[in-house]
Write a structure and sequence with these properties.
Radius of gyration: 30 Å
Strand content: 15-25%
Shape: elongated
Number of strands: 10
Largest sheet: 5 strands, mixed
Distance between the termini: 29 Å
Number of domains: 3
Length: 407
C-alpha cells in the first residue's frame, strides 16, 4: 500500500478530497497534503447552494503517525452565499468548523486534559502551547453545553466559591441528584444568581424545580424567589451548624483569654476539639474532650453541648417534632446566657420555614461542598486562575458531566 492510499484510508477521505502528497520531515514531522478534485456541489447547513468565492490554505494538527507529529494541509474553498452575500470557509470532513486540529486529535486532547488537570503538563504531553490547550477545553465546554438536554431537574444547589485573591467570588449551580455542576457565574450578588438560574435552565426546567438548597446568604434567597417562584428554599444543614460552630469558637476564645489572665491554660490548643462532632474524634481526642467537660464552670463545654444537641435536629422524622425540639433548644440557649448562641437561635427562628423545609426535601449543599473541595484541588493544581473565564471552563470541563468530544 502506498503512503497516499494509507493516509486516504485512515483519514476516511471521500470525494472530492484526495491525498496529493506526503512530505516527511524526519525525525519529527510528516505533512499530508490534501486537495479537492473535480466538481462538487457545495451547500450550507440547510442545503442551500453555495458558490466558491476563493481558496485558502489551512493546516490541522492530527494524531501522531508512529513518533511523527502529523499535520494535514489543504486549500479549502471560501464559499459565497448568493442570498446574503456573506462568505464562510467550507467545513472539511476531518475537522470541526473553525478548528486548528482534526476531530480525532481533539478527541484525544480532551481525554488527556481530563486525565491531567494541570494544563501546562497536559499541553506538554500533547506538544501544544498553553493557549491551544485552553482553547480546546473552552471549545469542549461550549460543545458540551450545547448538547446538554433540557431534562427536568427537581432539586438544585446554589453555593459560593472564591476563585481569586481577596473578595473574588463565583456562584456555583449544582444538580445534587445528578452530581454535576450545571453552570458558574461571576460574583455572588442577587443579580449574578438570577442570571445564573436564567442562563443555565430553560423556562420549562425552571417551572418544575421543587426545591433549592442554599446557605443563608440573602442574595441567593432573593434570586430563588424571583426566578423559581414555585421552588421551596431549603437552608443547608451544614451551614446552620457552621453558625453554631462559629459561636462556640467565639465563646472559647473569650473564655480562654479570661482564664489566661488568671494563669489557667485549660483551653490552650483545644480549638479543634470543639469544632468537630464527637463521633469524628479519635480515641485520644475524645479522652481529652471528656476531661475538659468535667469542669462544671467551663462555658465552652456548655456551648459545645448545645451545639451538639442542635446537630440532632435533622434526625427527626416529622417537621412538627423538629419544631418542638427547636423551641425547647432555644429555651436552653436563652437560659445559658451565652450571647453568641442566643444570636444563632434568633437567626434560626428568623429562617425557620427554610430550615424545616428540609423535612419535605432532604437535600443539602453536601454535594456542592464536595465540588468545592474538588474545585479547590483544581485551583491548587493550576496555582490559581488568571481570570473567571478559565475558572468556569475548568469547573465545567471536569465536573459538568458534559459530552465534550467531537462526534
Amino acid at each position: 500500500m502506498q503512503d497516499h492510499e494509507f493516509f486516504a484510508r485512515v483519514l476516511g477521505l471521500e470525494q472530492p478530497w484526495h491525498v496529493k502528497d506526503v512530505k516527511l520531515d524526519l525525525p519529527s514531522r510528516v505533512e499530508v497534503i490534501l486537495e479537492c478534485r473535480g466538481e462538487h456541489a457545495w451547500t450550507d447547513a440547510e442545503g442551500g447552494r453555495m458558490h466558491v468565492h476563493s481558496w485558502e490554505e489551512r493546516r490541522w494538527r492530527h494524531l501522531d503517525t508512529m513518533q511523527l507529529e502529523t499535520v494535514l494541509v489543504a486549500r479549502v474553498p471560501r464559499l459565497l452565499d448568493p442570498r446574503s452575500g456573506r462568505t464562510e470557509m467550507a467545513v472539511v470532513p476531518w475537522a470541526v468548523k473553525s478548528a486548528r486540529w482534526t476531530a480525532l486529535f481533539e478527541c484525544w486532547a480532551v481525554r488527556v486534559l481530563q486525565a491531567v488537570p494541570n494544563v501546562s503538563r497536559a499541553a506538554e504531553l500533547l506538544r501544544l502551547d498553553w493557549h491551544a490547550a485552553w482553547e480546546i477545553k473552552a471549545r469542549a465546554v461550549d460543545r458540551g453545553l450545547a448538547r446538554r438536554a433540557a431534562e427536568p431537574i427537581a432539586t438544585l444547589g446554589l453555593d459560593e466559591k472564591s476563585f481569586g485573591r481577596g473578595q473574588d467570588y463565583a456562584t456555583v449551580l449544582t444538580d445534587p441528584a445528578g452530581k454535576r455542576v450545571l453552570e458558574v457565574a461571576a460574583g455572588r450578588t442577587q443579580e449574578a444568581a438570577e442570571g445564573l438560574l436564567a442562563d443555565a435552565l430553560q423556562p420549562t426546567q425552571r417551572a418544575v424545580v421543587e426545591a433549592v438548597s442554599i446557605d443563608m446568604w440573602p442574595a441567593f434567597a432573593a434570586a430563588v424567589s424571583a426566578r423559581l417562584p414555585k421552588a421551596r428554599i431549603v437552608y443547608d444543614p451544614f451551614h446552620v451548624v457552621s453558625h453554631a460552630n462559629a459561636a462556640v469558637d467565639q465563646i472559647r476564645r473569650t473564655e480562654h483569654r479570661l482564664r489566661q489572665r488568671d494563669g489557667d491554660p485549660t483551653l490552650k490548643g483545644s480549638r479543634q476539639l470543639w469544632l468537630y462532632g464527637f463521633e469524628r474524634l479519635d480515641r485520644g481526642r475524645r479522652r481529652e474532650l471528656r476531661q475538659l467537660l468535667l469542669d462544671p464552670e467551663l462555658k465552652t463545654g456548655l456551648a459545645w453541648a448545645l451545639k451538639e444537641q442542635l446537630r440532632t435536629l435533622w434526625g427527626f422524622r416529622r417537621p412538627s417534632a423538629a419544631r418542638a425540639f427547636l423551641e425547647a433548644w432555644r429555651g436552653r440557649v436563652e437560659a445559658s446566657g451565652l450571647a453568641p448562641l442566643r444570636r444563632v437561635a434568633k437567626m434560626i427562628f428568623s429562617h425557620l420555614p427554610g430550615i424545616l423545609a428540609w423535612f419535605w426535601h432532604p437535600i443539602s449543599n453536601g454535594p456542592a461542598e464536595g465540588f468545592n473541595s474538588a474545585i479547590q484541588t483544581l485551583k491548587h493544581i493550576a496555582r490559581g486562575f488568571r481570570n473567571f473565564a478559565n475558572f468556569r471552563i475548568a469547573i465545567l470541563f471536569h465536573h459538568g458531566k458534559l459530552a465534550l468530544t467531537p462526534r
